[in-house]
């Protein structure tokens, strides 16, 4: 990547302007041969710059013909590189920072650290410690916590611990405050909509701008639709921890083609496209039924990013073999360890979708889900300049946040 | 005049671009000596712009010391509208070359005082020392820029109401809906272009053939404003075969025979 410097122009804002040339950018759902202009961490409209300010670039960066795509956004990640966000014993802020720094390599520029079903003490201690903040050289930006639980179904708890699962009781909104404490740094909450009182909770959370997701649930389609009408807009790892699709009651899966979704709203759904947690045929069914709603998530556990072999993580011993993480000595899967860029590549290969669709499933769609597409998840003028450079096989070669290079592959 | 006849659109575009390139290079522009170029918009010059971009990108030609003056702009169309001439010039030319933004000049169709804007444009041209080479096209009704039939042949930059013919011809850029085409425009006058040291008119396609015939084989007439250039000492008309369809065989043969000589003008300079 070469740089060429021009004599600095006196623009309206004295901030330097960088022009990324020789790249194919993802804009308006297509890869196009266009330059990307950045100033003060945001994407700049070069035509306005030219005519309004008579400005031009201070620096040009040659992208060597690579793809330039919006940075990936991971809305479900439980940890990685040995760090588990839900472990009470750890210094959460340090753990989140460590993971944030290391996922830059996977092209992730923003994420939602996820907490599985935990005791109240964990929420009260952890949530205030990590605020929503932008990324940079220090690591990917934090968009807010994803609280996966504890208001979930006992029957579909998956790997969550039974003793911390809760219901809403008589005053659901009060229970919410009691269990979680402050909701200031929360972006997403996963709950089971069949629980009594859930509708009040869904409305309360949506009213605060928090995305409500349905998951770890035995809800039927009708209960799921009611939750959507109250504002729920996401499905946590589709197919996993919910009733299987049945042709007379499709359950939560039926939301993908439900006709009860209020006009103008979209139901998004998370998919762990690691080739392990969902059969590729199931991935294709979901994708073909509702392509616009597909959101790639890693749902990564602490073992993600660790080399193959045995690792002791908290109370467990995990064995990593390729893309599988087993409870050591067994064939029981202990969670996902695929990285986001691996998920994007696998999704493209398994679904046969276009490069643009694969990239959008990890950037535009999560941004739309969280209601932040006015500044993230795309390369529109005015959006934050969070992006990656990728080769034609969608391997990340460099990651940028606010226009600054924050990670680069070794040559 | 020199009438340059090439086989097709691509060849005509390339010839024109090479001519412009050579003119700029021979002038040897520098920080004290800018080359002033008048420029058109529309589908005709697109091929020529593409070639000029190519020469710029491969290092043959720099626009660092070139000043440009566009012929016209619609009135009342937002500057960032995809069909404004500002957008056209940015997307098809300026964004691909190394021109300095303050050296480009396009009339502002949203200026508060349009007359003042037109007069100021004329002053900018004078301040730049006049235009070295003005490149233009021709409308099917024989107009140059938006100097519609009936425009004075000594006119200056001013506001013009567009003729029905012109609006219909431009409807293709507004989804075929001619009610969306702006009805007024700011345009350089015939006189303004005549003041240039040299004028090059690009004319391609059979639909322009009749206008070309009227412009060069009939008399000077304000109904076919391009005919004014019969009285300019240095005019070059660059066309393709189709544009010559309404000319006399004798005219075409004469100028085709001259191509041997005229082609020397576009040879690469060493």
Automatic annotation (TrEMBL), chain A:
- Which positions bind substrate? 159, 240-241, 248, 277, 333-335
Q: Which organism is it from?
A: Cynoglossus semilaevis (Tongue sole)
Q: Which residues form the active site?
A: 299 (proton donor/acceptor)
Output the GO biological process annotations, alphabetical, semicolon-separated: N-acetylglucosamine catabolic process; N-acetylneuraminate catabolic process; negative regulation of UDP-N-acetylglucosamine biosynthetic process
Its required cofactor(s), as named, are: a divalent metal cation
Output the PANTHER family linked to this UniProt entry.
N-ACETYLGLUCOSAMINE-6-PHOSPHATE DEACETYLASE (PTHR11113:SF14)
An example Pfam family from this entry, by short name, is Amidohydro_1
Recorded catalytic reaction(s): these are: N-acetyl-D-glucosamine 6-phosphate + H2O = D-glucosamine 6-phosphate + acetate
Q: How is the cofactor bound?
A: Binds 1 divalent metal cation per subunit.
Q: Under which pathway is this protein filed?
A: Amino-sugar metabolism; N-acetylneuraminate degradation
Q: What is this enzyme's class at the first EC digit? A: hydrolase
What protein name applies here? Answer: N-acetylglucosamine-6-phosphate deacetylase
Q: Where does Zn(2+) bind?
A: 148, 216, 237
Which protein family is it in?
Answer: Belongs to the metallo-dependent hydrolases superfamily. NagA family.
Domain Amidohydrolase-related positions: 67-406
From TrEMBL, chain B:
Main localization is cytoplasm
GO BP annotation list? carbohydrate metabolic process; glucosamine catabolic process; N-acetylglucosamine catabolic process; N-acetylneuraminate catabolic process
Molecular function GO labels: glucosamine-6-phosphate deaminase activity; identical protein binding
Which InterPro entries does the entry link to? Glc/Gal-6P_isomerase, Glucosamine6P_isomerase, Glucosamine6P_isomerase_CS, NagB/RpiA_transferase-like
What this chain does, per the record? Catalyzes the reversible conversion of alpha-D-glucosamine 6-phosphate (GlcN-6P) into beta-D-fructose 6-phosphate (Fru-6P) and ammonium ion, a regulatory reaction step in de novo uridine diphosphate-N-acetyl-alpha-D-glucosamine (UDP-GlcNAc) biosynthesis via hexosamine pathway. Deamination is coupled to aldo-keto isomerization mediating the metabolic flux from UDP-GlcNAc toward Fru-6P. At high ammonium level can drive amination and isomerization of Fru-6P toward hexosamines and UDP-GlcNAc synthesis.
* Family in the record: Belongs to the glucosamine/galactosamine-6-phosphate isomerase family.
Report whether Acetylation shows up as a keyword of the record: no
Assembly with partners or alone: Homohexamer.
Residues in domain Glucosamine/galactosamine-6-phosphate isomerase?
A: 14-234
The protein, known as: Glucosamine-6-phosphate isomerase
